[in-house]
Amino acid sequence: MQQETGESDSARGLHSPLPEQRRIEKEAFQEGWRASASTIPAVLAWGVVSGMAMVKSGMSIFQSLGMSLLVYAGSAQFAVLPLLAVGTPLLVVFFTAMIVNLRFIIFSAAVAPHFEHLPWYRRIWYGFFNGDISMAFFPQRFPPSTFGQPAGKIGYFSAICYPGWLAWQLGATIGILLASQIPESWNIGFAGTLALIAIMIPMTSSLPALAGVVVSGTVAVLALELPYRLGLLLAMVLGMSAAMLADKLLPSKDEEEERAA
Asked: What does the alpha-carbon distance between residue 107 and residue 110 come to, in Å, rounded to a whole number?
């Protein structure tokens, strides 16, 4: 526990007592939960849609439950389901899922330095839960300037990842078991989209973030017809590039305050 949650000797000079570490991680967990709790309804709704889609594509209940537990990637699941339904070779299915999920390479690269003090098996464990929700909150709370300062990171990361995983599995299980009972007229998928938009709007609190949203949204619509959902990957890359470019070109709040002073 001390190795995972305490600050390094180079950062603090000595390790914090174990009770202090636990307090820091507990407070970080509570902070992470307060920050990300609003995402749970959206994740739950998307899980229901995912579960329904798996069953309606011809998969059995046990196959659907297994896919939900092992894959845990909504975009990849939706991309490969039509391929599985028509008997596409598994190698094509595998590479399609990889292409759709290439964004997780960027996510991992952004988060990995924060957990480099952990043993490899712990990093693999946390890497499994790393996704869109964690990338929406974790980098804001722990920017690159906090590299080498592990205190509070495991607690915060756990709070924004574990509840989302549980919500996804609960939603997927509901969708799998009740696929034949939930009419498509309920438009659950659209409800999930609305929930995600409601989460995204408050987070678009700066001009670089707005630039990223506008560019990625525009590209996603224009590239909708690309095969294997490559439009999603293209939108993500161009959106992040636009946000980083805007961040470099536009003055930060600190710079504006210095100029005003």
From this structure: 5
Count of residues in the chain: 261
The answer, yes or no, to whether residue 14 has pLDDT greater than 60, is no
What token pair was written down for 257? 């305050």
- Up-side HSE of residue 30: CA atoms within 13 Å toward CB? 5
Contact 25, 16 (CB under 8 A): no
Query: Rounded to whole angstroms, what are the CA distances from 110 to 69, 246, 255?
Result: 25, 19, 25
pLDDT at position 199, please?
64
Dist CA 176 CA 17 (whole Å): 47
Residue 154 corresponds to which amino acid?
A: I
CA gap 62, 68 in Å, rounded: 10
Q: Is 148 left (phi over 0), alpha (psi -120 to 50) or beta?
A: left
Between CA 77 and CA 18 the distance in angstroms is 42
pLDDT score of 254 more than 60: no
Of the given ranges (81-95, 135-149, 191-205), which has the lowest mean pLDDT? 191-205
Q: How many H helices and E strands in the chain?
A: 15, 0
Say if residue 11's pLDDT is above 50.
no
The CA distance from 84 to 204, in Å, is 37
Buried b (16+ CB within 10 A) or exposed e, 131-145: bbbbbbbbeebbeee
**pTM of the full structure:** 0.71
CA atoms within 13 A on the CB side of 152: 13
Q: How confident is the model at residue 231 (pLDDT cuts 50, 70, 90)?
A: confident
- Report the amino acid identity of residue 134: S
| Three-class SS state of 152 | coil
Q: Are 47 and 192 in contact (CB under 8 A)?
A: no
* Higher pLDDT, residue 260 or 12: 260
